[in-house]
């Protein structure tokens, strides 16, 4: 077995890369949520002065990257990073590639739907620990108006949504990983498999993704020999409230108790008593803005020491669900330790 | 600088991973082309017995994976590979993710448009050389009927195409990389930046991608200290005939003579005297089926010893070109040495 591999899904980083800078930017709904004060930048509307929602999303990703680079003390242009790893939910990950054009550094585009955040952290950590890079910039984004119209209906239609539907998070998160420095370290990465539990409703992504999250958490704990309690917090990416409850039940079937130290980013972003977001948040930005905006700050404040971020992706396309296919899902876990 | 990095774009693999198996599958037009006899499997039509073109493309990717695994002596199910790295041109790289579902191994989805083939080889090589994997399966695909209708027009419309338009290649290529074994090795990987030279016509992708190819070739040669003549063959991915000529001119401006040892996969796939493909082939499968089907066999026959594969990607989406954006492009190079 490869020397850094400890199981079928998990690798151990020999010299765990450090998160030396991170930033979260968020839209107006997210700014009004319970974590609104934690984001590094928020915008009063969905267009942020751009001529299209797509351009607005791109500007958000670039803003997140620039803020993260600034936090990391990297101010030159083009930034002194060896790779830009990025992805988003738009067709041809066009937010990421147009952001890459502005950043002007070597780039790999990634796609794992809303799991892309932890995919990017994992690939970035391996590029650093493997000796290929000193610094890697990772970024993901999603935007309510670009994503809803691409996957489901333009929001202007005002079509009625089922109670378990989720609300796409508007925002972007960026992380600068480095070979050394101050900050939490990425110690283990658990790469998920694509799973399909028979969900075919594109509004019911929490249900599609919950099994993938539980499979990856189970694999991570089994292969590392850790227990749920080892972590101060295990967060999934964007199962939202219904998916979170389902994950808790599915985990119980595997004798894993996801209790007080478990939550889901999509369930944390909004206040369900006063914000009309149905089951909760979804999108690449869900795990990214909660992690970059809130959790990493909680780690810096000493309130969290060890967290497991399990971003979750629903691998549908409008074509596949119109053709009657199920929605497969995937989840990748990264362990962050202070 | 990170220990395996030799320049801004290029890394040297310390223990160069080996290509222990590869396979190319191709559609009917490709089967009739000059390399038709080289592909491991060809199909008589574009549906290959499936109920949609999308399912046909997926079956092609799976066929290519299974053949490559077979060549590598990996016959168990799920296959004993540590990662499946894959991408394609369909929205949400749905060919890759549904193939990942069937393969049932840990997966990272990649997107670099038609540059995804060399992106996958490069990421895979680093995962092996970095100590994270013993074996990695890389795969990409494209399909004329799925891609044309998604990016431009359904082929059934019979819309007239400009002479510089390209013809999307139908097929898939897969490669099994391993830490040791018999086969050519990946010695250097040069990661491209996103560039934009002002092309906005989605039929003129060769022109959009040629500058990216030349930038990456130039970076590779400068950073490795190699000359064009070091390689028995330098191949770009899918510039086709017009883009190839443009690449030769742009290279000359940088004092690089791309002569007899330079060609483009998109220009090699079809016989332009008898096949109506305008400028030539495009799509992820272009570089993949020429490399997996033909060039790796030429290396096994001893006819080629050192080749540089420079897959090229046009980073457009239908949304961005309808919104009047240019078509940025990227190219990644991998050096294969017997």
Automatic annotation (TrEMBL), chains A, B:
<dbReference type="Pfam" id="PF07451">
    <property type="entry name" value="SpoVAD"/>
</dbReference>
<protein>
    <submittedName>
        <fullName>Stage V sporulation protein AD</fullName>
    </submittedName>
</protein>
<dbReference type="InterPro" id="IPR016039">
    <property type="entry name" value="Thiolase-like"/>
</dbReference>
<dbReference type="InterPro" id="IPR038369">
    <property type="entry name" value="SpoVAD_sf"/>
</dbReference>
<dbReference type="InterPro" id="IPR010894">
    <property type="entry name" value="SpoVAD"/>
</dbReference>
